[in-house]
Design a protein that fits this description.
globular, alpha/beta, two-stranded antiparallel ribbon
Amino acid sequence: MRRPLLLSVLAAALVLAGCGGADEAAAPAAPAASAPAPSASPTEAPSDPAEDPLGRTYLALGDSLAAGYQPGGTELRDSAYPALALSRLDRAGAELTLENLACSGETTDSFLDGGKCDYAAGSQMAQAEAVLAERAGDVALVSIDLGGNDLLRCVRETAVDTACTKQGLAGVAENLPEILDRLRAAAGQDVPVLVLGYYNPWLAASYLGEGEGQLDAATSAYTALDRAITKAATEAGATPVPLTSAFKLDDATPTTFGGREVPTNVAQVCTLTYICTAFDIHLTDEGAAVVGRVLAAAATKAGVT
């Protein structure tokens, strides 16, 4: 299972939402699968919601996970986790319309300032505020996954620069509270704002046979990122939605994957992402379905019906 520069693939996996589109000067040398191009322009908000017959809105925001990025560079938004969460909610009677503004490669900086994807309002933040203003009273749910790409610049060939990850985490700690505060203000206090955590694809190192030496550093950064997201969400009056249980991140009991005995958390990350098959950290169809189920359950618990 070893491949040239596989450790670089795993290092890029540190960004979790791994979404490529990082500044070219800062991007690590790694296979294309770990550094995908930015997405095409997201769907823009209707110009006049008063004439829009679509009804209540679910606004999805974030990076390539929400955009449905697949190995090779395509985006399958119709089968990304927001669309699958919507299907579950609709089957339960919610009757929502999805507005997915996610942008592959988005960082917390670019979410605020723009530059990764084209938006009429200039940035994903501004576009989200425009949608929320235009559809005031008709938005039933907002979800967001963001923060992983802030660490991409910290990957240098076969190593994770821990000093750099601290700077990246500081950026998340500075930007994400502003983002969530602005979303909360624009959405209003009655609209659930769900903030997804991340999974840890570095667990695949033991299966792939390389990257074990960086596992502790990567796991430490992943854990700190998840804590920063949870803190920002809680303080903004949003709802953190961890993926720890869905990805069985704390379960190291033996099981079988690919004909080999591995810890359950390794088998889970290999099943729900492409990391062990295509050396790409993005969600498989099963992974998107799992995240969609978790998100739909959180939305239902938050009162979305």
